[in-house]
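Encode chain A's predicted structure.
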Amino acid sequence: SLVLHARYDNQFTCVLSSEVGGEPSCVSMKSDQSMGQPPIFSSGGGGEPSCVSVKSDQSMGQEPSCVSVKSDQSMGKPPIFSSGGGGEPSCVSVKSDQSMGQPPIFSSGGGGEPSCVSVKSDQSMGKRRSTETALQINTLADIYQPVDDVFHRVLERHKTSMKNKYESLFEGIKTEQNKTLLNRIYTQLYIIEGESEGVNEEHEVLQMEKTSRKHLQDIPINCLDIFKPLQELRTVLTKGIAGIGKTVSVQKFILDWAEGKANHDVEFMFVLSFRELNLIKDDQYSVHGLLCDFHPELKDLDPKMYHQLKAVFLFDGLDESRISLDFEQCEKISDITMTSSVGVLLTNLIKGELLPSALIWITSRPAAANQIPPKFVNRVTEIQGFSDPQKEEYFRKRISDQDQAKKIISHIKAVKSFYIMCHIPVFCWISATVLQQIMKQSYTEIPKTLTEMYSHFLITQTNIKNEKYEEKAEGDPKNLLESNRTILLKLAELAFKQLMKGNVMFYEEDLKESSIEVTEASVYSGIFTEIFREECVLYQRKVYCFVHLSVQEFLAAVYVFLCYEVKNMEELQIFKLLNRERSENVSLDEVLEGAVNEAVRSQNGHLDLFLRFLVGISLESNHRLLQGLLTSTQISSERTRKYIKRLIKGEDQQYPISTDRSINLFLCLSEMNDQSLSREIQKFLKSEKHSDEKLSPGQCSALACMLLTSEEVLDELDLKKYNTSKEGYRRLIPALTVCRKACLGRTACENLGSALQSANVSLKELDLSNNDLQDSGVQPLCVGLKNSYCKLETLRLSGCMVTDEGCSFLASALKSNPSHLRELDLTYNHPGESGVKPLSDLLEDPQCTLTKLQVDHGGKIRMKPGPQKYVCDLTLDPNAVSSRLSLSERNRKVESMREGQRHPDHPDRFETYPQVLSVESLTGRCYWEVQWSGNGVDISVSYRGIRKKGKSIDCVFGYNNQSWSLICYNNNYTVRHNNQRTDLPAPTSPSNRVGVFLDWMSGTLSFYIISPTHTLTHLHTFTTTFTEPLYAGFWIYPDSSLSLCEIE
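Encoded structure for chain A:
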C-alpha cells in the first residue's frame, strides 16, 4: 500500500492502500425500469471528507481490505449533495436493473469539486455518460475517418465507467461517508526500476529487513510513465509486498487516462484481477467474451476492432492466482474470437500471441513474480515502502496528541524489528493502534517483539468488536479472548490451512474446509472488520481475506498451539512429526522443530514470518498474553532454541540451509528473547586476537546474519581479516550486500557474482586484489556486473592474473550495465594491447560512466601465482650495515662476525646492534625471499629514519613504531611491532626459507614459510597504514647468516 499525502483544510492523510473498483455500500435507489432523468447533484456548500482507503494489498478487488487511517479533524462530515447549496446531506447509490438512459449530471452549484456518486447497472454500464468526461475524451479515434459512431460511443462509455469506478477511495466499510477522491490525496509512488533476472524468492518481511538500512538512490518512475519508452516496452511486471500500494498505482494510472490527463494514445484499458479470474478459471471464453464480463460496456464493440486499438491490459494480483499459466506447453492462440480456458487466454496475451500490440501491466507480490518467465517481461519495477521520514510523519499526523506520538515514535525506533517493519504502511497502522491503546493502560508492558505486538493487536481488535456489538468493554484480556474463542478458533484454522497452501484469498470452498459457512463468514467480516474481510466481485460472488498477510500468519501460528493443546496431530502432520501413532507423546519441541524444518526447506521463505510468530508464542510471557484463547500454562521451548542455534551454525548437516533462512532463524531467536548467539559473536569481534583465532563456518553464518540484520550499512568489510575455512568465507559472502566497500581474500571470491545480483546490494567499492582470479574467475564476476542491480562504482582487480580474455569479459559487462562503474584497477596484470583497447574505448563512450582505468605494472611476470608475481631485486646497503656484520656476494648476503669490521663512518650505519637495511626503498607491491642458517635472524621492514646511534632499545627492529619484524629462532616464530610481541604457532614443516610480501598501499605486510617444493605457508600478516617508503631490514644472530634469494 502506498503513501498518499493530502493537504486540504490544513490536514494531512496517509493512504496505506486501496482497492480498485466497486460501488459504495450506501442508500440504494432502484428502479425496475430505465430512469428517465437522473438526479442532479451539486456540491453546494459541502466539502469532501478527509478520509482514506487502506487495504491489505493482497490484490485488487471490489471492496478494500481496509485499515482505517483518519485525519484527526476532517472526518466529521460526509459530502453534501444538493441542488442549490442547501438541504440535508445524503449518500446515494443509483442502481438500475436495466441500462440507464442518461447518466447523472454533476454540477458544482456553489463551486468546488463535484460530489462523486457511484452508479451501477446490473446488466451493463454501457449507456451511462458523464458530460464532464465526454468533453475530456482525447483518443486516436478522433482521427479515424469516417468516425465510427458505435466505436466512439463504446469508448466514451468505457472511459466514463472506468472514471466512476476508480476515482474514489474508501476507508473501512464502503459507505459514502468513507469515500474520498483519489486525486485529492494521491502523492507520487516510488516505483523503482528492477531487473527481470532478479525476481525475489524470499519472504517479503525479510526483504524489508534487508532493505531497511539502504536509502535507494534510484530515480523513481512515475506510474503514468510505466510503459515509456513505448517503442521498447510491451510487458511490465511491478512487484511490491502486501500493503505497499500496487493496486493504488494501477488505480491512478487508469484514472488519469480516463480523465484525459495522461496516455492519450491509449484507447482502452482493461482491468482483470486474478482474484476475480479465479472464479472463472474453469470456464471457456474468447478474449472479447472475457472482456465483456469484466467491462459490460464493451458488448457493442466489433471484435475486429481489437487489432486496431491501442489497449492496456492490467493484470492485478498475480500472487493470488489459482490459474495454471503454462508458458512452455500452452496451446497457441492468435484469433481473438477463438474460445479457450482463461489460463490459455492469459498466457497467450502475456506471450504476445494474442493482440501483440497490446501493452501488459502485471502486479504481484515478490514471491509469485517468477511465474512469468523473464523473456516475456520487458521491465521489472518494485514499489518501495515508507521511507524513514514518512514513518515518523505517519505517526505525527495520525495521532493528535503530539506528546503521545513522540513517545510512540521513540519506542518504534528503539525496537529495530518494529522500525524495519514500519516500511510496510499496514504495520504502521497496527503499531499505532496497539501502542495508543497500551499507553492508556499503565499496567500493560509495551511490546518489544513482533509476537507481542500482534498479540496485543488481536486483543485490541476483539475489544473494539465487543464495544461495538455488545456495547461493553472487557478489561480482562483473558475473559475477552475466552468469550470470542469460537470465532477466533475458526479464523485461525482458516488462516493455517490456507497459508500452508500458499493462499491469501479464500473462496467458498476454502471456507467449507474450515467448517465456515458463507453466511457465517459474512458475520465474521462484519464484526471483525479490521481482521477479516469480505469482498463482492465478479457476478456478485464473494471472496475473503485477512486484513494483511502478517495477520494471517500470526493466526496460523496460534492455530498450531490450539491443535497441540487438544492433541490434534493430524492437522500438524504437515510438519512431519515422528510420533504419528501416539499423539499424546508428541512434545511441543517436536512440533516446533518440525515447523522449523519445514520453514527452512522453503524455497521462497513463505513460512518465515509464521515461524517467527510460532516460536514467539512459545515464550511463556507471550503464551500468558493469549490466555483465554490458549489454555495450556506450562510450556517450554529450550530444546528448540538450541536446535535453531545449531542450524544457524551449520552443525546439523541433515538440513543445510540458505543464507536467507539463516537470517530468519536469527530473527526467530530475537522473538524468543535469546541474544546469546549475538553476544558470542560480538565478544569474538571485540577480541584483539580475532584475526588469529579461527572462525568456524557456523560462527561465520551467525556473523553474516548479524551484519545482514544490522540497521546500519558497514563502511567496510575486510574478509581478509577473518581467519576461517573456504566454507566459512562462502557463508560470509552475502554480508557484502550490506557494506559500501569490501576486500576479499583468494578463498572468498567464489559465489561473488550472485552477491552482486542481489536486489538490495549496497556495495559501491570491491577490492579483489592479489587473488589470482585469472580470466576464469573474472567471467562469473562479470555476470554480476552486467546485472542492473549491481551499483558497483570501483572495482580493483590488481594482481589477479587477468589477460586480454578477462578484459574482454569486463568490457562486455560494462557495455551491458554502463551507468555505474567509474574506476577499474587492472594494475599488475597482463592485459596486453588487445586487452587494454576495448576498455580504453569505453573511456570515450558517452553512455559509459567509466572515467579511470589503471593498467600500470603489467607484463608476463604478473602471471605467476601468489605473491611471486611481485618479486623485486634487493641489495644490502654497505652504508647501513653494522660493524658486527659482513656483506658478500654482491651485497646480497650478510653474516655475523665475531670481531668488529672496519666500516667508514656514515649517518645511516647501525652503531650498536647487528642490523642492516636494503638499498632499495619499497612502495607499491614487493615480494622477496631470504634463506638463513645458524641460530636465527629477525626479518623486518623499517622506515629509513629508524634510530641508529646509541644503545637504546628504540634502535632495534620491532621495538618501535617505525618497524615490523618476524623473529626466527630455534624453529620458533614471533612477530613484534612497537614492542608488542605475538608468538606464532609452530608450522608443521619448519623451513629456513622465508617469503615477505609488502602491499604498501593496502597497508599489509605478510610473512610465509617456504617448503623445499616452494609451497608457501602463511605465518602472519600485519595490517596498518604506512606513511613513508619502507626498507627491508635484518638482525643477524651470532653464528648466523642470511642471503637474499634469486627467484626465477
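The first strand starts at residue 5 and ends at 8.
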